[in-house]
Amino acid sequence: MGGETPTQSKPRSEYPVLAPKPVGQLISDIYKDRISQFYARGQWEKNNLLAMMNEGVASGEPHVQLAVWDAPDQTRPTFEDAVSHEFKKTKVGEWFGPSWSTHWFKVTLKVPGDLLDKRLLELHWDANNEGMVWTDDGKPLQGLTGGGERVEWVLPDSFRDGKEHTIYVEMACNGMFGNAPGGDLIQPPDPNKFFRLDRAEVVAVNPDARQLWIDIWIIGDAAREFPADSWEQHKALKTCNEIIEAFELGSKESLKKCRKIAQQYIGPNVDSAKVYDSGKEAVVTGIGHCHIDSCWLWPFAETKRKSARSWSNQCNLMERYPELNFACSQAQQYKWLKELYPYVFERVKTKVAEGRFHPIGGSWVEHDTNMPSGESLVRQFLYGQRFFESNFGKRCQTFWLPDTFGYSSQLPQLCRLAGMNRFLTQKLSWNNINKFPHTTFNWVALDGSQVICHMPPSETYTAEAHFGDVKRSMSQHKSLDQDATSLLVFGKGDGGGGPTWQHIEKLRRCRGISDTVGLLPRIHLGNSVDDFFDRLELKADTFVTWYGELYFELHRGTYTTQANNKRNNRKSELVLRDLELLATIASIKDKSYKYPKKDFDDMWESVLLCQFHDCLPGSSIRMAYDESDEFYAKLFMTAGAILKDISKVLGVARVQTSTVADGVALNTLPWHRKGLIDISETEAAVACGHGPFLKLRKFKTSEEKPEVTLKKLAGGIFVLENNQLKVHVKDGLVTSLYDKSAEREVIPKGKKANQYVIFDDKPLYWQAWDVEVYHLDTRKELPAGKTKVHEEKNHRVSVVTETKISDKSHIEAVISLSAAVDGEQSYVEVESKVVWNETMKFLKVEFPVDVRSTEASYETQFGVVKRPTHFNTSWDMAKFEVCVHKFADLSENGYGVSILNDSKYGFATTGSLMRLSLLRSPKAPDATADMGTHRIRWAILPHEGSLGHTTVRKAFEFNSPLKLVSPTSSAARAALLDTPPVQLTSDSSPSLVLDTVKRGEDDEDVSRGELPKKKGQSVVLRIYDSLGGRARGTVATTWDIKKVSKTNLLEDELEEVAFGDGKFAIDLRPFEVATYKVQLA
Ligand SMILES: [Zn+2]
Q: Residues in domain Glycoside hydrolase family 38 central (predicted)?
């Protein structure tokens, strides 16, 4: 070592000694802003990339000849009808309307000679509204959306012959989001909107220019959105600027050069689906989707066309983009397509078979989940899954409700019972108080059942497939400790549409960036939602859990808005419950009676459709409610006819009887029932028994000791009193409610129950949807007028009070107390007639009660949900208005008060104050929402003990009053009063509710053939534990049983159940929903 001479290193380049010129640093903001100028419209468009987008355009005659036929009024005629009319010449620049009208265009195209050999020929059609391209022989091909959104239809190669070719365009005079005036989407539609046909031209597109536009758009996004401290951001900015500098206006060669530069950032494969073949692990699964509200800012009738337009688009795109996978929900929309657009339905079916088009969701529509009854939720799945199975050979695995306003607590159980163990939503990202803490988690129902829930971190189901959407799929992911993967649900939505070619092209670049420079989460297209969940399922045991409802901290007004529609929902659910029970009995009693399955299907499909998440919640325009009113009217008419037929079979005359001796009471509730029933203007009978028909005896009372009395004290106080309760009413208010057996006052001293209160109701934006927290600060008590005697009968007394709300609105409320029936809890009933003509006011009624608890209970589907009565945390406070079904209850140890209702869904309990929400008056999107007269009933039910079966049963009874009927003969009477054909025996746990009795869907005498028929007759029973404890019981039937099975909601037999002597035992876990299929011999 040592002694060597050190050698000088030679210079490796010709690095000059002297600096040749000053070089400045790139000023980031300015260079970034320059990027969009390269493809911006306006002052630059003639000199930037846009100037090279087309290689030629042909418009006007002879290349584009237009003729039109205007469909009368608001009709939506078929193709055959439309083309049978005479068309008159028209041209670009003409106006068409008014709102909701339809215009059919005969479009004759002749491609000019100089465009015949161009690479890509399209028809560009823009009339600023929705349209559909049809072939001249009546095949619907593709939807069009105006305003530049989806205006291109690719001409078939057969049009490149220089000859004339005819197509038709069906124009719908509404935008994607209806016909709101001005820029405010939710304002009631302007009935007089007209639409200008801006463009109808044949365009030869320059594909290089178009591709370069997408290249620089996405690289530009990387420059704008990647963090400034990343080299990836700086390289993006550099690349964009190099592209801009390489561009030469008019030079097709320069386009190719620019695209070559772009490849440095996005890689070489973005022009095809090959970009997804790099084999590198992706974390984001992109899935095309198209959310179509079944009604909203447009009527149901328009949705039928929206589905056809949107889904045709997707079938077209799938032919051009092999990576496009598309998921779409709502069996109802598929059914409309099948009936009205068989050509499109067949195309969809082909794509389903290819595994590209994915029916998803398993439900009839994307329904509200707060208000439908338990059985309605069951039928959403039953009708949905049966449709998917019978039409596509497969049931869905994922429940899909990206846009519904909150998710009730039993859904995971019902999903599992409907063959689905996955759930997708994202609406909770709209919470305006608390941020929901998870992206991927196990969601657990009241009974402990779980589903894997994923909420796409991009927080949208209508992603524009922007660079930012892909980026947020990681940056907003809240469950990275467990799993980093996510779904990106992209495509135009709400009003329909679905992915556009731009979306798919953009995502190719995003993938290219991930594989070339990195940093952006790697996206993959080509998989299904099921593939995504399949992988999650493998590690689902590591996911965090969320127990109970997914309460949505917004749209709380939707429990109340459009009261009539909600009332119809409750009434039709009850009617269907009654009819299915009675028709089941009739069809087994008399084999010649045909169980009216088609009618039931039609009725259920109407109910389920009206539970759509903008219909039942009250957030649609008037037109939609005019339609739903018609659906319900038809339903109640059909119900009347069915009941008439059943009555004949059972030996019942529908006329009311005035003598008790031969009358019976119709009771559809499944427990021993005892109650009063009016038999004439003045008299009542006591109905008592178990089963669908109850014996009557005359209600007797003596002069000396009447069962219920009405007294007037000094100071305008009325005292209504029976054996159990003593009620003081002054000026319409309940100032005292004394429970004699409990020896306790229900109303706190100095407080008044049944107090009407009114609030200012001006939410931040979404009028029909939202009631905002600050409305509570505007509470005003409505002073009532004088109370008068209304009724003084032996079995019932009542007083009436009129309360003025304003010059335009008032309430007439009857407070009544009936004679107490031994062994049955008595309650105070209120029936209100409200004439309501307010603007942005919220009417509620209050019940301060002398009960203390930090939690109140609310009936929900198949159970009870508890919610805080305090505002400890922001999560507690967010629940200042919640959903209720038939009862809300506030109980402390040993005692409680329930408020029953017959058609309401909004409630709040704050401290010891219970408050039932009655009516709202939003002016958008329906300016007439809830104006008019309403009849609403509720009751104050005090009870000993905590919440128990008394409340559950009285709430059912309050909603299902006994009906007086007379048998056709004494023999018929005896048969009616015989042992009920099916019942829960009296020693069964009282928390059990036999909620549904229906015939098996596929019984050979019932089936409509959509799925294979099954031999023999069967009866399906749905029983649940209503109170949250282990519940045992016995089902007894007089029918001759061959076999009993426990099934899921889809009536698949899961396990056999032992039976003997017409009986079988049941044992349910807390809040379990159990379905049994009883096969008859
Ligand atoms: Zn929606």
A: 553-632
3-state secondary structure 449-498: CEEEEECCCCCCCCECCCHHHHHHHHHCCCCCCCCCCEEEEECECEECCE
Sheet containing 708-713: give its strands across: 708-713, 717-722, 725-730, 733-739, 744-745
Res 97: pLDDT:
97
Please state, in angstroms and rounded to a whole number, the distance separating the CA atoms of residues 413 and 181. Answer: 44
Q: Amino acid letter at 206?
A: N
For 651-783, list the strands marked E by DSSP. Answer: 652-653, 664-666, 673-678, 684-689, 693-698, 708-713, 717-722, 725-730, 733-739, 744-745, 755-760, 780-781
Q: Would you state the pLDDT for residue 682? A: 87
Q: Give the Å distance between the CA of 292 and the centre of ligand 1.
A: 7
**Ligand 1 mean position to 453 CA, how many Å?**
19
CA–CA distance, 415 with 719 (Å, rounded to integer): 50
CA distance 356 to 342: 19
Give per-residue pLDDT as tens, 511-569: 999 999 999 999 999 999 999 999 999 999 999 999 999 999 999 999 999 999 999 99
Q: Give the per-residue pLDDT at 6.
A: 59
Q: How far is the CA of 461 from the centre of ligand 1 (A)?
A: 10
CB 992 within 8 A of CB 984: yes
* Cα 873 to Cα 423, 500, 878, 913, distances in angstroms: 28, 44, 9, 19
- What separation in Å is there between the alpha carbon of 296 and the centre of ligand 1? 8
Q: CA 46 to CA 670: how far, in whole Å?
A: 77
Eight-state DSSP code of residue 7? P
What is the H or E stretch that residue 381 is in? helix 374-392
Contact 330, 365 (CB under 8 A): yes
- How far apart CA 723 and CA 983 sit, in angstroms, is 31
pLDDT in the model for residue 578: 98
Tell how far the Cα of 434 is from the centroid of ligand 1, in angstroms: 22
Cis peptide before 98 (omega within 30 of 0): yes
Alpha-carbon span 1019 to 1000, nearest angstrom: 6
Return the bridge partners of 1055, or none: 1046
Q: How far is the CA of 442 from the centre of ligand 1 (A)?
A: 24
Rounded Cα distance, 108 and 96, in Å: 19
Q: How far apart are CA 43 and CA 25, in angstroms?
A: 28
Amino acid at residue number 594: K
298 Cα to the center of ligand 1, angstroms: 12
Tell me, in angstroms, the distance from the centre of ligand 1 to residue 643's CA: 36
Burial of 585 (0-12, 13-18, 19+ CB in 10 A): buried
Is 106 in contact with 161 (CB distance < 8 Å)? Answer: no
Whether the CB-CB separation of 1024 and 1031 falls below 8 Å is answered with: no
Sheet holding 664-666, edge to edge: 652-653, 963-967, 664-666, 693-698, 684-689, 673-678
- Smallest Cα–Cα separation from 262: which of 287, 284, 243, 283? 243
DSSP notation for 172-241: ESSBTTBT-STT-TTSPPPTT--EE--EEEEEEE-HHHHHHHHHHHHHHHHHHHS-TTSHHHHHHHHHHH
Tokens of 539: 């590690």
Rg over alpha carbons for the chain, rounded to the nearest Å, is 34
Nearest to 558 by CA among 109, 912, 930, 951: 930
Parallel, antiparallel or unpaired: strands 422-424 and 450-454: parallel
Q: How far apart are the CA of 494 and the centre of ligand 1, in A?
A: 5
Distances (CA, A) of 506 to 271, 468, 494, 774, 1051: 11, 11, 21, 43, 45
Residues of the chain with pLDDT under 50: none
Q: For the whole model, what pTM was predicted?
A: 0.97
Q: Which two tokens stand for residue 343?
A: 């050509």
| Residues that are catalytic | 403
User: What's the residue count for the chain?
Assistant: 1081
